[in-house]
Specification:
- Helices cover 34% and strands 15% of the residues.
- The protein has 13 helices and twelve strands.
- The strands form two sheets. Strands 3-2-1-4-5-6 form a six-stranded parallel sheet.
- The longest helix has 15 residues.
Length: 340
């Protein structure tokens, strides 16, 4: 039985979209170990076909050459193959230091020698699931969707922890989840006032709270949403681990988000969801979920500038997002929930 080491990408969404690659390798009889940075390691712990997760101690943006050498050498003779998902040169150093016989990845940053089975870099921005699946050698006729699983005890523990920030009890399927932030920048983010209007409408109609999820960097954004929708929101942004946020998403009645890592988490759990796209494209990173409703106004508004893939709107209006009305998202969310 072949033992493979998977060098994981650094972003949550990319990590989720690598699950079909893990599944394909496991179907070939390969035992997969994932080496991941701490902020994406929980994603791999939610993949049943990953046998072990190794958390890497590297700081973002640093080479840490000596540390990479020591960790790589500690892996010598442990693995038959390595699959390097990031395109950076430093990501390919670990399996090379380990002397792993077969080292697979894209050419990336001129990684001749470091990788001995290299795929040519594709043009443009390809869909990410086939991009990763190609590393396994063959593509299926249809693109499989990523799937994550968590034990029920993990959800119960996350609900118990969230209870400390809520007056009303939280129960699985009895709350909505919003992920209003995006790591890449504001050109990805549906306006905060729209999130607040939607939260207020949902709470008034159903009496179910809206749980706000995301990183501590989005604290001001979350506070603004919660203040503008009094009583409707339970603000957990920056107050959960990724493990807890994933569990809370898995237990939600439905999810609304921008194009973000947590969007892909919801898709992989099969949660009814609405994904609002602006500067990015659902042709590149769609939520692969039969219960997903995608709102993208490129054609409807005849926006030649979309997708721009920029952090800030160069024109300052962000029409691709501001013109997605809260009422429209509410209708899409209802459609997603009914399509169960």
């Amino acid at each position: 039985m072949e033992r493979a080491l998977l060098i994981a990408p650094q972003w949550i969404g990319d990590a989720v979209m690598s699950e079909p690659l893990v599944a394909a390798l496991a179907a070939q009889g390969t035992v997969v170990t994932a080496a991941a940075l701490p902020w994406v390691a929980p994603v791999y712990r939610a993949m049943p076909r990953v046998s072990q997760v190794i958390e890497l101690p590297f700081a973002h943006g640093r080479l840490d050459l000596g540390l990479r050498w020591r960790i790589g050498r500690s892996w010598a003779h442990h693995y038959d193959a390595a699959y390097v998902l990031p395109n950076s040169l430093k990501a390919a150093l670990l399996p090379w230091f380990a002397g792993i016989r077969q080292r697979v990845g894209y050419e990336g940053e001129s990684r001749w020698g470091l990788l001995n089975r290299r795929l040519p870099n594709p043009q443009g921005r390809p869909p990410m699931v086939p991009f990763y699946l190609a590393l396994a050698g063959a593509l299926p006729a249809s693109v499989p969707r990523p799937r994550l699983q968590l034990p029920e005890a993990r959800l119960e523990a996350a609900l118990a922890a969230a209870q400390q920030s809520s007056i009303a009890p939280l129960a699985s399927g009895r709350y909505w989840a919003f992920a209003p932030g995006a790591e890449y920048g504001p050109a990805k983010c549906w306006p905060a006032e729209h999130y607040a209007a939607l939260a207020a409408a949902l709470f008034k109609r159903d009496g179910l709270p809206v749980v706000l999820l995301g990183s501590g960097k989005e604290a001001a954004l979350a506070a603004g949403i919660a203040d503008a929708a009094p009583g409707a929101c339970i603000n957990l942004i920056g107050r959960t681990t990724l493990d807890q946020a994933m569990a809370l998403i898995a237990g939600a009645r439905g999810m609304v988000s921008n194009d973000s890592g947590l969007m892909h988490v919801a898709a992989a759990f099969g949660v009814p969801q609405v994904a609002v796209f602006g500067s990015t494209s659902p042709e590149h990173t769609p939520p692969l979920n039969p219960r997903a409703q995608v709102l993208w106004l490129k054609e409807e508004l005849k926006l030649d500038c979309s997708p721009c893939f920029e952090r800030q709107c160069r024109f300052g209006h962000t029409r691709c997002l501001t013109e997605v009305a809260p009422e429209r998202v509410l209708r899409a969310l209802d459609a997603a929930v009914l399509d169960q």
